[in-house]
Amino acid sequence: MALRTGKDYKESINDGREVYIDGERVYNITEHPAFKPIIDVKARMYDINHEEKYKEICTVTLPDGDEINRGYHMPKSKEDLAAIRKYVDTVLEDLGGVFYRVGDETIGEMWSLYDAQDRLNEIDPTYAENIRNHIDRIARLDLFHVSANTDPKGDRSKLINGEDGGTLLHIVDENEKGIVVRGAKFETAAAYANQAFVKPTISNWSNSSVNMENYAVGFICDMGAPGLKHICRSPVGAGKDPENYPISSKFEEIDTLLIFDDVLIPWENVLFHRSLESAKYIRETVHRYSAFNYVLRILKRADYLIGVALLNVEQTGLTKIPSVQEKLTELISYRETINAHLTAAVAEAQETAGGLMMPNQSLLYTGRIYALKHFPAMAHLARELVGGQLAVTPDMATMRDPKIKDHIDRYYSVGKWSAEERAKLLYFARDLLNSSLAGHQITFELFAQSPPFAQSAAAFKNYDLTPHRELVIKAANLSSDLVKS
Ligand SMILES: Cc1cc2nc3c(=O)[nH]c(=O)nc-3n(C[C@H](O)[C@H](O)[C@H](O)COP(=O)(O)OP(=O)(O)OC[C@H]3O[C@@H](n4cnc5c(N)ncnc54)[C@H](O)[C@@H]3O)c2cc1C
């Protein structure tokens, strides 16, 4: 097998899948205005791997000579983790923007399952074999693999009781070909991906009763499978002029409500089924690798915040004012704290039971919490430094209108910044901070991977509190009976 090109990728998703958006059935997804921009970006990601200057960073040659995407290479050393970081950085730099669901972050969920092979083997040996085969297949076929976690959950109190799956995705039949599933999932990028790892949603799986077993299922689903319906949200960037909306017009990722209308999942695609223990395990470990790639995106977003704020204060001559410098320092501190978490998570990486190297979990999860919690405040600070012109600047066609151009030049140009250059910076800043897509992305970041309470729980579970307890017990001369609480 070979690394795919952008053209190969595009051909692979024009497979007759059932996609709906804005009251319309989509027949040619690669040319549809809502999907074309982000599909073109994803296609560019495939093409990058064929360019000589990127080859070393973006691809890996397997012992048998097969070449795969660096993002799909299972990390077995700290160097492998550092190489993944460099790969994501390089790709985002080339594309000139930040987007989230592109494959490198979702493959990590499969690696979490790989780590559980021994436990899954005890339940059913075919699970571990299917997991290994799929990890290999994704890499060798260079598939665009995404992730479906979240169901429209209905009454949460019933779920928490563990007595009723409500609307959760579940198994309705089982036969010699495989299992048949019914239900729904929310999934960004599903409509233009090749396949998804579908898994149980966040719930109290440890306390679930046996009648929840039909809901405890994990599998790979082809995004063109018969019975699968992609019901997509309306785009906010489609059709927007790239000059005025340089980010929305290119980087909008479309989210889908995926309906599984009795979809057959062949046995070779079943990773576990009717297994509460597996559901619990996957929910506890699912982001052990993928959170790294996710936080990397937020770091890149922080780079953009600093860039727009800096360029704006430079052109308006404010850089020398100490209070402006303080605000820039706050942005820098935010950026560098995220950077420190990621750097330390690699330096302190941990070997797993499966023989892989995972980023240090505590440093990674606390970094994720920090990055997400402070992003809105940092965006606000960048907004403040860019100033009100962020919100009041006319569009480029108006700026260029010869009838008013003299006025525009007079009031918009500053020093060596022409009116047009200033407008370009302001449009970029607006799209980063103020546009519909900017709002959408903040909501996405809040909920992507899992909601804040679940991210907090992951950080809590992965931090060893024992030394703190022992420290105070010793210093305060407390009874040694208290050492093990
Ligand atoms: C733009 C966008 C894109 C998305 N893309 C994907 C995707 O690609 N794949 C995917 O699987 N999902 C995706 N999601 C779904 C996302 O993962 C969920 O929104 C998220 O997991 C929260 O689930 P929910 O929306 O059902 O919220 P709920 O479970 O209803 O929770 C809402 C709020 O209720 C409170 N709450 C609920 N339960 C508890 C509890 N047990 N303890 C404490 N507080 C609680 C919290 O404040 C929580 O934030 C996406 C969501 C958005 C907004």
Describe the protein's architecture and organization.
This protein is an alpha+beta fold and about 475 residues long. It has 2 domains: about 5-285, Butyryl-CoA Dehydrogenase, subunit A, domain 2, CATH 2.40.110.10; about 290-470, Butyryl-CoA Dehydrogenase, subunit A, domain 3 (Up-down Bundle). Helix content is about 50%, strand content about 15%. The protein has 20 helices and 14 strands. It has helices spanning about 5-15, 35-50, 50-60, 80-95, 105-115, 115-125, 125-140, 155-160, 250, 275-285, 290-315, 320-345, 360-385, 390, 395-400, 405-410, 420-435, 435-445, 450-460, 465-475, and strands at about 20, 25, 60, 65-70, 145-150, 170-175, 180-190, 195-200, 220, 230, 255-265, 270, 350, 355-360. It has a 6-stranded mixed sheet, with no helix packed on it. A 4-stranded mixed sheet has the order 5-8-9-12. Strand 13 and strand 14 (about 355-360) form a beta hairpin. Helix 6 crosses helix 7 and helix 11 (about 290-315) runs antiparallel to helix 12 (about 320-345). The protein is globular, with a radius of gyration of 24 Å. The termini are far apart. The mean pLDDT is about 95. The protein binds flavin-adenine dinucleotide. Flavin-adenine dinucleotide binds near residues 149 and 255. Flavin-adenine dinucleotide binds next to strand 5, strand 7 and helix 18.
